[in-house]
Design goal:
By secondary structure, this protein is of the alpha/beta class. It is built from eleven helices and eight strands. Strands 1-2-4-3-5-6-7-8 form an eight-stranded mixed β-sheet, with helices on both faces. Helix 1 links the parallel strand 3 and strand 4. The longest helix is centred in the middle third of the chain and has 19 residues. The mean pLDDT is 94.
Length: 310
């Protein structure tokens, strides 16, 4: 059985990321980025899968992003802007790929991790051969939908709660009742959450007890939120097209029952990504990594093998 290695990785610019990893150093590297209110452990099954020789024998690593679990948690909101999150991941990529060509085989990301990964693929395409995104909106389509589509504005209304100065205190109340509701309220209409076992709940509690301010600061630092009477939010943004393009092969896996990030967000993606593959999961929610890890692994496996026969 493959074991998960945990360690603290100090980065040259003073940030330390707590990491989970599997597989041998020196092998091609897959890096996995989590979202909110999650943590690196959500990738454990995929780390174990892809580190196996029969599945590529990759070196697989999942960092806790800054502000999460035992990673550094700067106090300033401005420290959670995407440019600093990118700096963390680029430094970690350099360390992890030093013995394997200075480039990831693939950067895999979900939710907020995807926001970082989209930017890295645009600004630093040389650090990864491929990109795989799971239910994380591309900046271009997200701005479009947040600015114009009442459906997306309503679906993202929770963002305007998370920027409140007291949001972390409220989220921690009643044994994190509202945070667990992120899973159940954003789930499938069937209401089945078999993956949310007592053991998984305790893993989340352990992460959340370490602090919630860092995670909330991601929303406070970002203009990507629905407009209000006093804040134009995403409607104030006008980003040039060339700053949104991705020129490396990209797989987008989209769970179609995601009520926070509806399927309209994948419409028009090909205008930004010439080499694009989209896989739709009809019965998956925003938490599809928990729900159907083997399906995700299969899609990733096929994507990784394209152009790289083993």
């Amino acid at each position: 059985m493959t074991n998960i290695e945990t360690f603290q990785q100090a980065l040259p610019h003073g940030i330390t990321l707590s990491c989970r990893a599997a597989g041998t150093r020196g092998r091609p590297v897959l890096m996995f980025l989590h979202g909110f209110p999650e943590a690196a452990f959500v990738w454990d099954e995929l780390l174990k899968h892809f580190s196996q020789p029969e599945n590529g024998g990759y070196r697989c690593i999942a960092p806790n992003l800054r502000g999460f679990e035992k990673s550094s948690s700067p106090t300033e909101v401005s420290a959670y802007r995407v440019k600093f999150l990118m700096q963390d991941i680029a430094a970690l990529i350099a360390i992890e790929t030093a013995d394997s060509g200075d480039k990831l085989a693939c950067l895999v990301a979900h939710d907020w991790g995807g926001a970082v990964a989209w930017s890295i693929a645009n600004y630093m395409p040389h650090v990864a051969e491929k990109l795989a995104i799971i239910n994380s909106p591309h900046t271009g389509t997200f701005i479009r939908e947040l600015s114009r589509n009442p459906k997306q504005q309503a679906a993202s209304a929770y963002m305007n709660f998370l920027v409140r100065p007291d949001s972390e205190q409220i989220l921690a109340e009643d044994d994190f009742r509202r945070l667990f509701a992120f899973f159940t309220n954003m789930g499938a209409e069937t209401g089945e959450f078999a993956w949310l076992t007592p053991a998984v709940k305790e893993q989340y509690r352990e992460v959340w007890r370490a602090g919630l301010t860092g995670g909330c600061n991601y929303y406070r630092a970002s203009p990507l939120r629905p407009p209000t009477e006093t804040d134009k939010g995403a409607a104030a943004l006008d980003i040039p097209h060339h700053l949104l393009t991705v020129d490396i092969p990209t797989l987008v896996i989209w769970a179609m029952n995601d009520i926070a990030l509806p399927p309209e967000l994948i419409d028009g993606l090909d205008a930004y990504i010439p080499d694009l593959t989209i896989k739709k999961v009809d019965n998956g929610t925003h938490w599809v990594i928990h729900e159907q890890p083997q399906l995700i692994a299969g899609y990733l496996q096929n994507f990784l093998l394209q152009g790289f026969p083993r």
